[in-house]
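During the second half of the funding period, the structural biology subgroup turned its attention to how the target accommodates small molecules. The most pressing case was Muraymycin D2, which had performed well in the primary screen but for which no bound structure existed. We therefore specified the complex as follows and requested a full 3D prediction, including the ligand pose.
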Amino acid sequence: MLYHFLYPLSDQFFLFNIFRYITFRTVIAFLIATVFSILWGKYFIKFMQKKQFGQVIRDDGPESHLKKAGTPTMGGVFIIGSILFALLFTGNFESKPLLATLFVMLSYFGLGFIDDYAKIAKKNTKGVSAKGKLLWQFVTAIIAVYFLRDANVISSDLYVPFLKGPIINMYSLFIAFAAFVIVGSSNAVNLTDGLDGLAIGPIITSAASLGIIAYATGHKEIASYLFVPYIENIGELTVLCAAIVGAGVGFLWYNSYPAQIFMGDVGSLSLGGTLGIIAVLTKNEILFVLIGGIFVVEALSVILQVASYKLRKKRIFKMAPIHHHFELLGWPEPKVIVRFWIISIFLAILAIATLKMR
Ligand code: 57M
C-alpha cells in the first residue's frame, strides 16, 4: 500500500523515488517480515498454549514423536500474516502476478486453517477429507492459471533448463499442467512438514532462489543476457519472496528443534502452493523440481511406498515420507533436518547456476 501512496509523491519528495526500486522494497520486505514474525510468533505461541490448541500426534509414528503431543500448531497464521504485513509497506498490488499468487496463498491458507481447526476441535488427525482438499486445491489453481493466461501475463510455452527457447507450446493442456505443479507443490510441502524445521528450511531456500529468478525474469536486460523469457511485472514477486524468506526465518526462530510450534496445514499448504505458482509464473516448472528437490523426494517416497505396499505388500522404506526412514535408521532428528537443509541449499545454488548455462 505504502508503495502506492509514497511513490507518486516522489515528484515533491525526491527521497520517495526509492520506492520505485524492487531491490529496495525487497530488502525492506525481508526486514519487516523477519522482525514482525519473531515478535508476533512469541505472543501467538502463548495464545495457542493458553487455548491448548496443540498438535494431536498419530500413534503409528516414530516413538520419538509421541512426546510432541500438545505442541502448539497453526504457526502458518503468523507466517502468512507477517508476509501480508510486510507487503502492506512494500507490495505493488497493481501487479497481476502478485495478485494471482496472493489468491492461491490465501485460498490454501483458508483450506489449511479449516483442516487444522477441525483436527484441533475433534482432537484427531483426520481434518478435511483428502478428496475435499484436492478439489479445493485444483479449483483454486485452475482459476489462478486461467486468469493469468486470459490476461496474457504468461504463455502456454514450456521452458526447460539449459535450453534458450521454449520446447513446446502446451496450449490448453498448460492449464492442467500448471495446476498440477501448484497442487503438487502444496501437498509435497505438506508431506515434508514432519520434523522440526524440516519444511521451513527448503521453503526459505526455494523462495530465495525463485525470488532471484523472478528478478532476472522481470528485468529486460538481465533476461535477454541470460536468455530467459522476459515477463513484465514479474519482478514484484521478488518482493513477495523476500517476505516469505523473512517470515520463514522468523518462524524458524521458534520451529527449530525442539519446536515450540508447528506451522500446521495452514502454513504448509499455503506456502507450498505459493512456491508452485511462482515457479509457473517465472516459467520454471521443470527447474522447480531441482529447486524444491527435497519436497519432490519426500512426495516420491510416499508414492513409491504406498504403491509398493499395495502391489507387493512390501515397504521400500522403513517408513514414508523418507525423513521418518532416516529417523528409524537411528539418525537423531536434528541430524536429519540439517542434512536436508544442506541438500536444499546445494540444490537452490545449482538451480541458479543453470540460468547462466543456456
Ligand atoms: C502431513 N504431518 C505430520 C504439523 C505440521 C499418505 C501418508 C504418507 C500421509 C502422511 C500424512 O499424514 N501427512 C500429513 C504431515 C505431522 O505434522 C503436522 O502436520 C502439519 C503439516 N501438514 O505443521 O501440524 C506430524 O509431524 C511432526 N512434526 C514435527 N515437527 C514439525 O515442525 O515433529 C511436524 C512439524 C506432527 C509431528 O509429529 O504431529 C505427520 O507426519 O503426520 N502420513 C505420514 O506421513 C505417516 N506415514 C505413513 O503413514 N507411512 C506409511 C504409508 C502410508 C506411506 C508407511 O510408510 O507405511 C507418518 N506420519 C506420522 N505418523 N505422524 C507416520 C505416522
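Two results from this model are relevant to the next phase. Residues 2-356 form one domain. The first strand starts at residue 157 and ends at 158.
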